[in-house]
Amino acid sequence: MSGIAERKARAVLIALAISWVAVAALGPLIGAHGFGLGELVEENGTLSTILWQIRVPRVLLALLGGGILAASGLAFQSLFQNPLAEPYTLGVAGGAALGAVVALQFGGSTAGWGLPLVAVAAFLGALAVSAVISGLAVSPMGINTSTLLLAGIAISLTCSALILLIQYVSDLTRTFHMVRWMMGGLAVVGYQEVLWLAPWWLIGGAMLMGLRWELNLLLTGEELAASRGLNLVRLRLTVLTATSLMVGSLVAVTGPIGFVGLIVPHLLRRLTTEDHLYLLPACLLGGGVFLALCDLVARTVLAPAELPVGVLTALLGGPFFLWLLVAQRR
Known about the structure:
By secondary structure, the chain is an all-alpha fold.
C-alpha cells in the first residue's frame, strides 16, 4: 500500500474514532425530549432515569452491535470472496434468530455456566448455519459463490418458515414478543445487555484482527494464498467461529438487524483501503456509528412512537443490495 493511501486510511480511522466518541457522548441527549445540563448531573428523577438507564445503554448497544455486524460482514466478504456476503444474506442471522425463538418458546431463563439460554441458542443457530453453508459452497476446487448465495437464501427462507410455525402454535403473548423481537430493536433498560455484548465484541474483533494478514493474503486468490502456506481450512473455521460468536450474541439481545454488514464495509472500502489492518477496525468503529445514527432516526422520525431500527436498516439495505447487483453486472 502506498504512503498516500496509508495516510488516508489512518486519517479515516482517526475520524471514525472521534465520531464514535462523539456519538457515545451526544447520542443520548438527542430524542423526542431534549436534556439540559441539570439532568446530566441529577441523581434522581424521571428525566435522569430516562437518560442514564435507557438512552445511554441504547446508544452503547448500537455502537457495539453495529461494529459486530460490519466486521462480520467484512469477514464473510473476504472469506467467501463475494461482495454480497453478510450475516443477513447468508442466513447466519436467520439461524441465530431461529435458535433464539426456539429458546423463547420452549426454554427456561438460563443455560449452563450462567449464560442466558436465548444467547446460547442463538449462537448455536448461527454456528449451525455457518457450517451448512460452508459445506455446501466450499469444494476442493474452491468456493462456488452462486451456491453460497443460493444456500444462504434457502436457509433464510427455511428459518423464517420455522419461526412462523413456532409463532403460529404459540400463545398470543409469546407470539407478540417474537414478532416484535424479529423486527430488530435496541430498546433496553439498564446495562445488562451492554455488559453481555461487550466481551464478544472484544473477543470476536481480536480474533479477526489476528487473522488480518491471512485475510489480506486471501484477496490474492485461494490458489496463490494456499501456495504461500495459508491453511484455508483453519482460516475458515476460525473466521466462522468468530463471526458466529459475535452475530449469535448480538441477535440474542437485539433480534436480527439486517444489511449493516453489507452497507458499511463497502462504504469504508471506498474511504480507506482493502488492507484489513485498517479496514477491520474501521468497520468496528464505523459500523457502530452507522447503527447508532440509524437508531437515532428510528426513535425520532415518528416521535413519540419509535420505529424498530431493523426495519430502517432493511429499508436502506434493499436498494443498496440491488445497486451492488447492478454494479457487478457492469
